[in-house]
Design a protein that fits this description.
The protein is α/β, with parallel strands linked by helices and 394 residues long. It has 14 helices and 17 strands. The strands form 4 sheets. The protein has a 6-stranded mixed sheet, with helices on both faces. Helix 2 runs parallel beside helix 7, helix 3 packs across helix 4 and helix 8 crosses helix 9.
Length: 394
């Protein structure tokens, strides 16, 4: 089953809004054995109709996002109806849902808002429980002929639940009745502290020699993903090989972010964590607190950007800073140990470094970062790193 995606909205092309739709669709579709074959991002306007018409000869399913709202540039619904030669009518149930939503919020409803209740003949309404514009589903029409077409809202908070609740069941049925799924599974192993080229050098040839395995790598700062796709038995054999060679470097599998894995492990052991940051400026704490369940394990964070704050908040001796410099293993250890003592947490993680663009020396160039770790009952330790990148990517 060939699936194509059309993302509409001039704001996507102008860079005002990040287009996250393709990543979402890809992750949601793969468990059904489906993959996006092609994606196109286009501005608002009549070009939407042209893009949709072009898919009639190439796609089995088309997912269109955006252009269903009440404003003058929301024309996706109208252009689809014109292309399929469908009359538009007011759907009483949709209109009632919109009116109820506006009444509940104390807003007046106008004719522009009511436009969202216009439904083309033959289209199934996909109810929007997080907004006013419903989605629409046009089953494939052999008389046109046209593919299965889904018109979906653009805002992710509306799109995501609608796709999971209303679109995936239809696609699942199409796969089961038509036998269009691949039967493949995907396994992604996440490695930390090792370069992409080293991973490929050690296991690339062995993995590439496995028949029927689709292999891919994705590098991020300090991390590498090894992506394995194929029949279940083939993927499991390949994953076993990766684990055998890189077992200690694998921190998670199948989509978990590092911070998610950390929170998971802390919850499993009923342990707590505190952060104390200098060069990272609160980014460690931000990543941790964005994980559901972090409130049960994350005590809090100290932002000790200045030397004075290192001493005042986590009791780093001024003499230690004078002797070794704020960017040093000794200070990173003292920061972690001080945070542990101040909060009673089980673990403390500290960062101190030179993010630049100025401040580097021959001994400690820009990008030098010391990461400290303290654990209850153990001596604090620190490691030195050189990150030739931006502050957020440290």
């Amino acid at each position: 089953m060939r699936i194509e995606v059309i993302n509409t909205g001039s704001e996507l092309l102008l860079g005002n809004v990040i287009n996250s739709h393709l990543a979402f669709f890809g992750k949601e579709l793969f468990p059904l054995g489906l993959r996006v074959a092609r994606q196109e991002c286009i501005p608002d306007g009549d070009v939407i109709g042209d893009a949709l018409a072009a898919t009639f000869s190439t796609a089995d399913v088309v997912l269109v996002t955006g252009g269903l709202g009440p404003t003058s540039d929301d024309v996706t619904r109208d252009l689809a109806a014109k292309l399929l030669d469908r009359e538009m009518h007011v759907d009483a149930a949709v209109l009632a849902a919109i009116e109820e939503r506006f009444t509940r919020r104390g807003y007046a409803i106008n004719d522009r808002i009511k436009r969202q209740a216009m439904v083309p003949a033959g289209a199934a309404v996909l109810h929007n429980h997080n907004g006013t514009a419903p989605g629409l589903y046009f089953p494939a029409d052999p008389n046109v002929p046209s593919p299965h077409i889904f018109l979906l809202p653009g805002p992710p908070r509306e799109l995501h639940p609608m796709f999971r609740d209303s679109v995936l069941p239809v696609l699942k049925n199409l796969v089961e009745t038509g036998g269009n799924g691949s039967g493949h599974i995907a396994r992604t192993l996440h490695l930390a502290g090792i370069g992409e080229s080293m991973v490929e050098e050690k296991i690339g040839a062995q993995l590439e020699a496995i028949p029927g395995l689709e292999l891919g790598y994705c590098a991020r700062p300090g991390e590498v993903d090894v992506r394995l796709i194929g029949e279940p038995a083939i993927v499991e054999d390949a994953a076993a090989l990766v684990r055998e060679v890189f077992g200690k470097s694998i921190y998670a599998e199948d989509g978990l972010l590092m911070e998610e894995k950390i929170v998971e492990l802390l919850n499993a052991s009923s342990a707590t964590l505190v952060t104390v940051e200098s060069c990272t400026g609160g980014h460690l704490a931000d990543r941790i607190t964005n994980v559901p369940g972090a409130s049960g394990v994350f005590v809090g964070g100290f932002l000790t950007y200045s030397n004075a704050m290192k001493s005042a908040l986590v009791s780093v001796p001024a003499a230690l800073i004078d002797a070794h410099g704020a960017v040093s293993g000794e200070v990173a250890e003292a920061m972690a140990a001080g945070a542990l003592e101040a909060t009673g947490a089980d673990f403390a993680l500290s960062t101190t470094g030179i993010a630049g663009p100025d401040g580097g020396t021959a001994e400690k160039p820009v990008g030098t970062v010391f990461i400290g770790l303290a654990a209850r009952g153990s001596k604090a330790v620190a490691t030195r790193h050189l990150f030739l990148t931006d502050r957020v990517s440290f």
